[in-house]
Design brief:
With 469 residues, this protein is of the alpha/beta class. The protein contains 10 helices and 19 strands. It binds 1-methylethyl 1-thio-beta-D-galactopyranoside.
Length: 469
Amino acid sequence: QAPKPYGPTPSARQKEWYDREIIAFFHFGINTFEDYVNEGDGKASTAIFNPTSLDCNQWAQTMKLAGISTGILVAKHADGFCNWPSAYTDYSVKNTPWRNGKGDLVKEFTNAFNATGLKSALYLGPHDRHEHLSPLYSIPKYQSYYANQLKELLTNYGPIWETWWDGAGADELTTPVYTEWEKIVRSLQPNCVIFGTKNSYRFADVRWVGNESGLAGDPCWSTIDSISIKDESAHIKELNEGQVNGNAYIPAETDVSIRPSWFYHPEEDKDVKTPQQLWDIYCNSVGHNSVLLLNFPPDRRGLIHPIDSANVVQLRHIIDETFANNLLAGASIKAKNGRGGIYKTSNLIDKDPNSYYATKDESSTDEIIFKMKSTNTFDCLMIQEVIELGHRITEWTVEYADDGKSWKSIPGASNKQSIGHKWIVRFPSITAKYIRLRITKGNASAALHTFGIFKQSSKLKKQQGKYIT
Ligand code: IPT
């Protein structure tokens, strides 16, 4: 008999979102053509928008090489400029020199991503400074303007996998406003994940992580009281760490740019995050039970800069190389409280994403000992819970021994709390033959997909025994 779910659990949409692990963000628009602007005032002339060699196939190919399955294009940022020829405004690509006013970036983007087997998603910024410039602006008017644009985007461009309700500048838009917009999303694109903030808190499938630096909390629970999302500024810690007994399942999405800014500025070419820095971010987001939303700002040509591409492809090599070889493969495993049947301990180290190990219903704790065939050197561990069954384990520790008796703690791997979709811990190299996973507290019997120890990729640069970034 399978373990029964505990507490709030993910919807099919949220499960699909977790499996993406990394999503790309593309900030591109009229700001790109202004000097050092990241939040335009809505007054820039459409005449300046003119990418010289925009090619969304280059974006898609880069993402494919980086193993990133989904891309979110900014269709309209706070400046209000529309990257598609919306029927509801003149402030769009149709009044630019680009493709003689016949261009449609949303079309080019979704076509390129679909053709490459990638998923498309769109950011339609709720806050709109251009609309605000009109003396006739009112919230009800804007509510229907935005609703119409949402319908255009969710009807004319195939499947859209995520939409983003940025909280920045959007406080005047109340929950009833979002209630109308949510109906549009749910009816036109039932699989679309909603990133919700502040007044759209009720509709959030995923929450903001509380910073833009690539750091999910430790712990980072997928559960939270949704009111913490509404009252964002008072609950930054809750957004970052979640709440262990929170009443809603709304996991954290970690948005960060590969450059200091969200939009492209040539002076930041020297400040692109290095593969090592991206690896840190990956471990602190995906490896903290979150999903990484990594921003690439295409340049004025309309292309991803080669430094950004090279670094993200390196990140993919680092991830793949690190996790290719679970050093526990072939180990003999003994658990105290195993459930038996199909929930066997060997499921922890197989590569089957569907099999899992579980303890007996009455056991929320366990002790699992892995004896490797020989001594191994490792500096990283990774563990995955069965998220469909809710957050079950609430405290765990990993130790090592040479003899299977004198256990020593692994730095940073004692009294850990959340696991969820994936948890990664890195530490200075250890050489040992035995590993012990102790589950010391839980809300319910344990259910684990994966447990492994690894040696971090040789592509990471080391100095005096420490990885440098
Ligand atoms: C911040 C918003 O307040 C939050 O709701 C979310 O949209 C977030 O941005 C996305 O990064 S504002 C930002 C300047 C910290």
